[in-house]
Amino acid sequence: MADGQTLKGVSVKAFDPYAVRVQFPILSRQVNGKPLVYLDNAASAQKPRAVIDALVATMEGGYANVHRGLHTLSNEATEAYEAAREIVARFLNAPSPETIVWTKGGTEAINLVANGVGLSIEPGDEIIVTEMEHHSNIVPWHLLRERRGAVLKWAPIRDDGSLDMEAFAALLGPKTKLVAVTHMSNVLGTINPVAEITRLAHAAGARVLIDGCQGAVHAAPDVQAIGCDYYVLTGHKLFGPTGIGVLYGTAEALEALPPYQGGGEMIETVEKESVTYARPPHRFEAGTPPILEAIGLGAALEWLSQYDPAAVQAHEQSLYRHAVDRLQGHDWLRILGEAEGKGALLTFSVEGAHAHDVAQIMDRYGVAVRAGLHCAEPLAKRLGVTSSTRASFALYNTMEDTDAFVDALIKARNFFV
């Protein structure tokens, strides 16, 4: 896309990863005497200067508590805080800012829904998840299994890492109350057909929650096109701060949820004998909210909106394909997840080496990757691995990063031969 063209009404720039890279101060440092090659983006992305500056500017010149103050600083902070909510709504193509609830992360957003839905769960009611879910989208439903008698049903994956849609559809039935599925697997990179999943689930009378913590970064989410009841994201993977997340819900779905926590801001009136609650989203935002973090996430999404998502995805895919092409023919390497259309995430196991050892040796060459179970133990068991290593690409990574990654991986393998 050329300079000056617009995307959803926002002016975007031609994509140049080197111009992007210089906006991230941390990427100029060295690790163990080598240039930092940061490929742990699926765990947490680095922060651009625009986000750092927004946080510093707010702390230095515009910080106060929000909503309840009448003084200038409080009014300014409230305006910036609520403007960030509007930015998130635009990012998700949500129908209004009132459908955006601030949370402390994606995990809390899922737990908020589980807590509310759980009050109406009866023994035998079914919740469908998939074998590729992150623990954050598994454990809250196990709590309902333990406490309310819910039944967890598992949609299987195929050997290439794609979701078995026929098997998923067969699981749906009159007892299905909720379908909770990831938009994009944090291990396999699989991007699920969430609009079709939603359509099938709604036809069966079930609500749908989409874990978008990875998908929001790589899959250009549009909640109205997806049609889901709930969509969850976390700020730190979207180049924003930690401690901030989002629950999107349709107006109907949010109205149906009871309060998650009690305290200030989430009420209308408090009497000795009774209490009445605010309407969404404030019903779910008890106490002093993550003000700086919300403003930082707004700054991150405004910064990200400069770039055409399709161009970013094409760049990330080119890095992934380059890495895979260079690794062809190495029979000691097993790539986990090769579904068509997957995101730019390369998870693998190395014959004769533990993932932790591979990651530690690669770190000697300045290459940061993730190792372990990736908070997806049921998936690891399905794949028959006890651990794996993951390289996840972002818009600021370059071909030089990819070559450094492959070189370090081969050196790590040779260490064990």
In words, what does this structure look like?
There is one protein chain. The chain has about 425 residues and is α/β, with parallel strands linked by helices. Helix content is about 40%, strand content about 20%. The protein has 15 helices and 19 strands. It has helices at about 15-20, 50-60, 70-90, 105-120, 140-150, 165-170, 195-205, 215-220, 225, 250-255, 290-305, 310-325, 355-365, 375-385, 400-415, and strands spanning about 5, 10, 30, 35, 35-40, 100-105, 125-130, 150-155, 175-180, 205-210, 230-235, 245-250, 265-270, 275, 335, 345-350, 365-370, 370, 390. Strands 6-12-11-10-9-7-8 form a 7-stranded mixed sheet, with helices on both faces. A 4-stranded antiparallel sheet has the order 15-16-19-18, with helices on one face. Strands 1-2 form a two-stranded antiparallel ribbon.
Chain-wise SSE layout:
Layout: E1 6-7, E2 10-11, H1 17-21, E3 30-31, E4 34-35, E5 37-38, H2 49-61, H3 72-92, E6 100-103, H4 106-118, E7 126-130, H5 139-148, E8 151-155, H6 165-171, E9 176-182, H7 194-203, E10 207-211, H8 215-218, H9 223-226, E11 230-234, E12 245-249, H10 251-256, E13 267-270, E14 275-277, H11 291-304, H12 309-327, E15 333-336, E16 345-350, H13 355-363, E17 367-368, E18 370-372, H14 377-383, E19 388-392, H15 399-415
Parallel strand pairs: 5-17, 7-8, 7-9, 9-10, 10-11
Antiparallel strand pairs: 1-2, 3-4, 6-12, 11-12, 13-14, 15-16, 16-19, 18-19
Helix pairs in contact: 2-11, 3-11, 4-5, 12-15, 13-15
